């Protein structure tokens, strides 16, 4: 399938391209980081499932991750990525708050969207949670971002194993500072695409987990009811993040809707025992010189091990190696 190729639009929006075939543009919802998300085995596997038979294009929203310096709004960022990738017609998927961005695009630019997939979305933000709850969470994010990221991990990913929860909590904080996270969350609570839904003409699949702890099922129903001909698929589960919980049924229903065959998953990339030792020391914050001293090898040999890990895992940074090691160490 190939690795993840990262590029940047002229306005500073970072986007990643994976796989080959007709294009599928993916609009993320909550905080994101193209490099760190690729290092989390569960999240990477989800994107690879979408990219099997498609060219998957996803991006960091303005102000987040590798797009921290982008000075555009969400709608402009999506347009930038589509133009930078040279796309004229494509499948479009939006997850969580990204569902509203995708829906708004499909309504405004109907000639560009072949099929539309909306996962875990909502048409009107104020209905997602009571006002008191919204203000409490926003205040917590602004004043105690560390504690808030733990709380949001509980809400978004209750089925994640301990290691993945640890990495996701860190990755939220590395994707955005407290002020940016609060701004993003407030924007999610203020979303309103109710007027756009009737203008969507692309075949549309709305997918919602039955007991999603972040977005009640009735929000998915309202999203589906607002789009003529949309099909609603309700799947078991309570995790809001699409790559946590029982993921194969979710990827299977999306692939069927996109006209793709059932996927036969290949083996995930692995490391040798020595490479795992090196990865563990990187996760501990060791330099190449310190790795060499700990393992009784030269600094140059340590550097070579690091480069082989990066090549084998399709990583660009030591931070990705550290995140991958922590996320894959549950039960070790």
UniProtKB/TrEMBL annotation:
* Cited Gene3D superfamilies: alpha/beta hydrolase, Winged helix-like DNA-binding domain superfamily/Winged helix DNA-binding domain
Q: Which domain of life is it from?
A: Bacteria
Q: Which Pfam families match?
A: Abhydrolase_1, GerE
Q: Which CDD domains match?
A: LuxR_C_like
Q: Keywords in alphabetical order, please.
A: Hydrolase
Q: Which intervals hold domain HTH luxR-type?
A: 264-329
Q: Name one GO molecular function term.
A: hydrolase activity
**Record's SUPFAM superfamilies?**
alpha/beta-Hydrolases (SSF53474), C-terminal effector domain of the bipartite response regulators (SSF46894)
Database matches in InterPro entries: AB_hydrolase (IPR050471), AB_hydrolase_1 (IPR000073), AB_hydrolase_fold (IPR029058), Sig_transdc_resp-reg_C-effctor (IPR016032), Tscrpt_reg_LuxR_C (IPR000792), WH-like_DNA-bd_sf (IPR036388)
- The signal sequence is none
In the UniProt record, does the keyword Amino-acid biosynthesis occur? no
* PROSITE patterns associated with the record: HTH_LUXR_2
Supply the name of the protein: Alpha/beta fold hydrolase
Species of origin: Paractinoplanes bogorensis
Q: What is the lineage of its organism?
A: Bacteria, Bacillati, Actinomycetota, Actinomycetes, Micromonosporales
């Amino acid at each position: 399938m190939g690795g993840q190729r990262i590029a940047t639009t002229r306005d500073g929006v970072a986007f990643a391209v994976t796989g080959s075939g007709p294009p599928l543009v993916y609009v993320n919802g909550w905080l994101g980081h193209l490099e760190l998300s690729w290092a989390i085995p569960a999240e990477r596997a989800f994107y690879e499932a979408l990219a099997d038979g498609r060219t998957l294009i996803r991006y960091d929203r303005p102000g987040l991750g590798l797009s921290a310096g982008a000075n555009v709004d969400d709608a402009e960022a999506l347009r930038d990525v589509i133009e930078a990738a040279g796309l004229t017609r494509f499948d479009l998927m939006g997850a969580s708050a990204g569902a509203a961005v995708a829906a708004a695009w499909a309504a405004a630019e109907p000639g560009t969207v072949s099929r539309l997939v909306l996962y875990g979305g909502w048409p009107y933000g104020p209905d997602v949670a009571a006002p008191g709850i919204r203000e409490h969470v926003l205040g917590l994010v602004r004043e105690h971002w560390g504690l808030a990221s733990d709380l949001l991990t509980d809400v978004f990913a209750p089925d994640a194993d301990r290691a993945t929860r640890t990495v996701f909590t860190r990755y939220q904080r590395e994707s955005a500072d407290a002020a940016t996270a609060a701004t993003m969350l407030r924007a999610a609570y203020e979303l309103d695409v109710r007027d756009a839904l009737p203008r969507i003409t692309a075949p549309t699949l709305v997918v919602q987990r039955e007991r999603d702890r972040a977005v009640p099922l009735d929000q998915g129903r309202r999203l589906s009811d607002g789009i003529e001909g949309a099909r609603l698929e309700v799947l078991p589960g309570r995790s809001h993040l699409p790559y946590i919980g029982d993921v194969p049924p979710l990827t299977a229903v999306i692939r069927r809707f996109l006209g793709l065959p059932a996927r036969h998953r290949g083996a995930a990339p692995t490391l040798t025992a020595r490479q795992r030792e090196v990865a563990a020391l990187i996760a501990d914050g060791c330099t190449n010189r310190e790795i060499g001293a700990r393992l009784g090898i030269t600094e140059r040999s340590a550097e070579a091990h690091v480069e082989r890990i990066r090549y084998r895992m399709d990583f660009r940074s030591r931070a990705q190696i550290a995140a991958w090691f922590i996320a894959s160490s549950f039960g070790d």
